[in-house]
Amino acid sequence: MSSPVDPSQIQGNATLDDQQDIHHHAEQNREATELHHYTSSNAGSRGHASATQAPDTIWSAVKAFWRRQVAVVVPHAACRDHFALERTYLGYLRTSFALAILSVFIAQLFRLQHTAHPDPVFGFYRLGVPLSCICTGAAIVVNLLGTYRFWRQQNAMLRGKILCGGWEMLVIYGLFFITSLTILVLVLALDIRKDWLD
What is the pLDDT of residues 84-121, one digit of tens each? Predict the structure, then answer.
């Protein structure tokens, strides 16, 4: 690894563009090595902790978890990958919000805006709450799986690896398929039954 160049040591004949390039290179080098210095200094300080200090050990474990999982310091060169990972998590969050909004929508249409004499056995009024609960549960599962996948992917990226696919994606695909198919089949069955009775 090359050592950073101090911009004040530049020869007098260097142009302003050269000075800016050298300063930019020094700044990138400092940010790229920041994680290395941070982790090596923490590893050295962890060796001095005694086993008799249980509350301090728990607190330092919480702080270490926070630094490794929540407030991660990454090299400047890898920021783009971590930002892409955060955008992917926001996609999971949007998907869970869409399912939660769908559950409210189903509750509004099926349960709250019912006819004067709803069918007490098999009708929109009876199926509003179960379908709404299914969509709300699916929203919670998607959000939890997205959070788990984000942390798993972040740990892999900090080790210099990347994860492709995974069982989380298959669970989310299957959950969406089953939820959509259930809603479609029940609404069609209700509509056919209503036309048959009328």
Answer: 888 989 999 999 999 999 999 988 887 776 667 766 67
Distance (Å, whole) CA 81 – CA 156: 12
Q: What residues contact 146, with CB distance under 8 A and at least 6 apart?
A: 89, 91, 92, 93, 95, 96, 168
What's the rounded Cα separation, in Å, for the pair 109 and 128? 8
The residue among 185, 174, 165, 164 whose CA lies nearest residue 142 is 174
The encoded tokens of residue 97 equal 């919000």
Residue 139: CB partners within 8 Å, gap ≥ 6?
96, 97, 98, 99, 100, 103
- Asked whether 66 and 22 are in contact (CB, 8 A), the reply is no
Radius of gyration of the chain (CA): 28
The pair of three-digit structure tokens given for residue 72, joined into one six-digit string: 């991660």
Contacts of 70 (CB under 8 A, 6+ apart): none
Q: Taking the CB of residue 135, how many other CB atoms lie within 10 A of it? A: 22
- This model's pTM is above 0.90: no
The encoded tokens of residue 70 equal: 């929540």
Residue pair 96/143 in contact by the 8 Å Cβ criterion:
yes
